[in-house]
Specification:
- With 80 residues, the chain is of the alpha+beta class.
- It has one domain (3-79): 2-Layer Sandwich (GMP Synthetase, Chain A, domain 3), CATH 3.30.300.90.
- It has 3 helices and 3 strands.
- The protein has helices at 3-13, 42-52, 72-79; strands at 18-23, 27-33, 64-70.
- The protein has a 3-stranded mixed beta sheet.
- Strand 1 and strand 2 (27-33) form a beta hairpin.
- Helix 1 packs across helix 2 (42-52).
- The radius of gyration is 12 Å and the shape is globular.
Amino acid sequence: MTAEELKKMIAAGLACDELTVEGDGRHWYATIVSSEFEGKRAIARHQRVYATLGNKMKTDEVHALSMKTFTPAEWANETN
């Protein structure tokens, strides 16, 4: 699995305003900005992202994914 492949999987299942993925092939770090996160707590946001990966976490194709999730408004505050 490459960063680009993982990024495409997330983007295919979740409308993202911003999406970056970095990692070493086993441990991944993602920053994800999506309006779908509006009104959701962190755990629900993470579950939504995990849903885009299907069984990839269970089969260990994606061993670990650490993420920061933001709504567009939160991201605007974070980057200004």
